[in-house]
Structures are given as C-alpha cells and as structure tokens.
C-alpha cells in the first residue's frame, strides 16, 4: 500500500454566516488521509462532521488555512477547480440518492458517462460488471423501488466506485440499514476500495462499524481528535 497523502489539511477553520451572525464551526483542523486508508469520522450531532466532509469533497468553498486534495489547494479555489477535483471523488450518502426512474444498471451507467466519454455499450458492460462485483448481478434491471435498503446502498457503492475514484466520502452510509446489512455494506466498500487503492472516509454515528476502520478520528465542537480513549489533538508537522 502506498502512503501518499490524498488529503492534507493544515490549520483549517470554517465559519458559517456573516457579520454578527458569523459562527465558527471548525477550529484549527489538521489531518492527513493516506492512499488506501479507511478512516471513520465520528462525533456528536452538530460537531461539524458533514461540514468537514463537504469541504474535503469540494462541495463547499474552504475559507482559511490549507486543504489539499490530491495536491490541489482548495482554500480559496475557483468553482471550476472544485468541479475538477470532484471527478476524482465518489460520494455515498445516507439516502443513497438513486434516481427512481432509472434501473440499477442505468443509475451506475450514468456515472460512467458523466466521468468519461465511453461508447454506450462499453459503459453498459462496465456498469453490469460493477453491479456483479457488489453482488447484484441478478438485479441489474430492477428499479430502486424493488430493491431492499441494503441493495440500494450497494447500487450507490457501485455507482461511486465505477469510475475508480481516488477517494470515497461516505456520510452515514449505514444509517438506514440493519446491523448485518450495515456491516456487509462497509465490508464491501473496504474490499473494493482496497482493490482500487482508494481512500475511504466514513462519517458515522454507527458504533457497529467502528471495528472496520484503520483509524478513527473524532470531532467535538469543531475540534478534531485522534479517536480512542486517550484522545489527542491532531497535529501535522512539516
Ligand atoms: N449551511 C449552514 N449555515 C449555517 N450553519 C450551518 C450550515 N450547515 C451546518 N451548519 C451548522 O454547523 C454546525 C455543524 O453542522 P454539521 O452538519 O457539519 O454537523 P454534523 O456533525 O455533521 O451533525 P450531524 O451528525 O447531526 O449530521 C451545526 O451547528 C449546524 O447547525
């Protein structure tokens, strides 16, 4: 496993609101995510987890400090730079966000076609192969309404991984699943991501999946700590 940083964050602060309503949400965040790592980010509701995830994903503008994703500085980055970085990232959310009017295969294929110019048939075969690798080979033509929660989440994983992202950002991917499906879904993400050498960051409240991470980090009131009993503020040197 190579240990090149995929994300390097130094002294990152984040604020919402303006003037007298301005409120600091993230305080002096320092973090490094390496290639192929599976990291879980936990913390109480409102501690800033989603805010940090969306900043790393180029889904909102970073304001102060430094946030580098794949070597690209995102603090004060222009919109088109954020759009560019998003091509290298796969997103998985709690509410799987599948399009109901498309089959499992079409949902996955849409992502292939957005990411690369492919002949339609090639994109279709690639999507079917990806669905097979998440155990849904017999469900490729099913619409989301005819799939279980776990199966829908597997389609979302297939869609996120089909374009070989460098990093997967998953926000509460197991929240709507029972314990066994939740474990299976994370195991699958882990296995596929390892094969592709892709980094995974999972935001979760779900204590049932904590054992699956290489590393656990924790946010409390906007401050980031290395997880575990003896919590230590994260610092990066050099
Ligand atoms: N767009 C916004 N404008 C203003 N405040 C916001 C905005 N988004 C989030 N916040 C505030 O920022 C803080 C952190 O929110 P965030 O969603 O990042 O927390 P979280 O740890 O992901 O919470 P949860 O576990 O409940 O999803 C909260 O106080 C929230 O109210």
TrEMBL record:
Keyword Coiled coil: no
UniProt-recorded Gene Ontology molecular function terms: ATP binding; ATP hydrolysis activity; transmembrane transporter activity
GO cellular component: membrane protein complex; plasma membrane
Domain ABC transporter: 7-236
InterPro entries cross-referenced by the UniProt entry: AAA+_ATPase, ABC_heterocyst_DevA, ABC_transporter-like_ATP-bd, ABC_transporter-like_CS, ABC_transpr_LolD-like, MacB-like_ATP-bd, P-loop_NTPase
ATP-binding listed as a keyword: yes
SUPFAM superfamilies: P-loop containing nucleoside triphosphate hydrolases
Keywords for the protein's UniProt record, in alphabetical order: ATP-binding, Nucleotide-binding, Transport
Name by which UniProt lists this protein: ABC exporter ATP-binding subunit
